[in-house]
Amino acid sequence: MGTLSITHDICIRNTSCLEVTVPDSALQEIVCCMGQPVAGNPTQFMMQRAFHAAGLDWCYLTLEVAPDNLADAVRGLRAMGFRGANITIPHQIAVVPMLDSLSQSAEMMGAVNCIWQQDGRLIGDNTDGRAFLESLAGILDPRDKRVFLLGAGGAARAIAVELGLAGAQKITIANRTPDRANELVELLSSKIATSADSIDWQDNLPIPEDTDLLVNATSIGHLEYDAPIPLELGTLSDETVVADVVFSPPHTWLLEEAERRGCTVVNGLGMLVNQTRICFQVWTEREPDPQIMLEAVEEYLEI
Ligand code: NDP
Known about the structure:
It is a single chain. This protein has helices at residues 43-53, 70-79, 104-109, 128-136, 154-165, 178-192, 253-260, 269-284, 290-300, and strands at residues 7-12, 16-21, 29-35, 58-64, 84-87, 101-102, 114-118, 121-125, 146-150, 170-175, 196-200, 205-206, 213-216, 231-232, 241-244, 265-266. The longest helix has 16 residues, at 269-284. It is globular. The chain starts with 6 loop residues before the first strand and ends with a helix. It is an alpha/beta fold. α4 (128-136) packs across α8 (269-284) and α8 (269-284) crosses α9. Residues 1-18 have low confidence and may be disordered.
C-alpha cells in the first residue's frame, strides 16, 4: 500500500502537536503502556516521535488498566497481536505469571516493565534497573557504595538488583509494607549475594548516617508535586546523592529539599528516556535517537 498524503495533527494537552501520518502499511504494528494511573504518562509522546523519526509506521497506545482487568488485558495483547507493551505502576510484579517466559533480569527481579511478542509468545524483560544505572553515569559509581532505598515495588526491585550487580556495598530498604521489603532483602541476599537489610518505616524515618545514595522508588510524588515523603530531612548529609524515580513532575518535593541541603540530585527523566530507548530497541531492533526522546518528554512536561 502506498503512502497516503493526508496528515493529521493530534494535539496533546493543547500545547504540543504531534504529526502522524495515516498508516501506510496494510497493518500497523501496535505497542502500548498499561498501568493505573497512567494518564499523563509521556511515553506515548516520546515513542511516537521516535517512531516517526525512524520512519517506522508503528502506533503506541496508553491504556488505563485496573488490577482486576490485568489478566484480560494481557490476553488481549496476545489475541490482537500487539508487538509489545510497557508495564507500569502497579502491575510490574502481578504481570509476571501471565507471561510465557522471562529474560534473565526479569526472572531475577520478579518484575517486568517491557513485554514483547514473538510467535504468539509473550516474553517479559526488565529495563528499569539498567536505565536507572545509566542515569547515574558520571554522577556516582555504585561500586562499594551504601544505598538507602525507599520502596519495594517493581521499580525498587529492578534498581536494587542492578545496584547489587554493580557492586553496591550494602542496600538498606524501607517500605510501607515490611513483608515486601523483607522479600527484596531475601532476593538480594540469595540471588546476588548483596548485603541487604530492611528497616521499619515509621513516620519521619531517619536517613542512615553513612548513606552514599538515597533513592526514592516509591510512587509518592507521582503526579503530585507537593507530596512529602516521611523522612527526617535533618539527617540528610550534603554528601549523599539523592535520586527520585518519579518523572512527572521531574522536580519532586524530595529533590527540592535535597538541593536545598546541598546534595547532588538525579531526577527520573534520565531513567525514563533510557528505559524508553531500550524498549524501542527490543521491539524494533533499531536504535532510536535519544535526543528526540528527551526533547519530546521535555516538551510534553513543559520543562
Ligand atoms: P509499585 O506499585 O510496584 O510500587 C509502589 C511502591 O511505592 C511500593 O513500594 C509502595 O509501598 C510504595 N508506596 C506507594 N504509595 C505509598 C505511600 N503513600 N506511602 C509509602 N509508600 C508508598 O510501582 P512501581 O514500582 O512500578 O513504580 C513506583 C514509581 O516509580 C512510580 O511513581 C513510577 O511512575 C516510577 N517509575 C519511574 C520510572 C522511570 O523511568 N523514571 C520507571 C518505573 C517506575 P507498598 O509496598 O507498601 O504498597
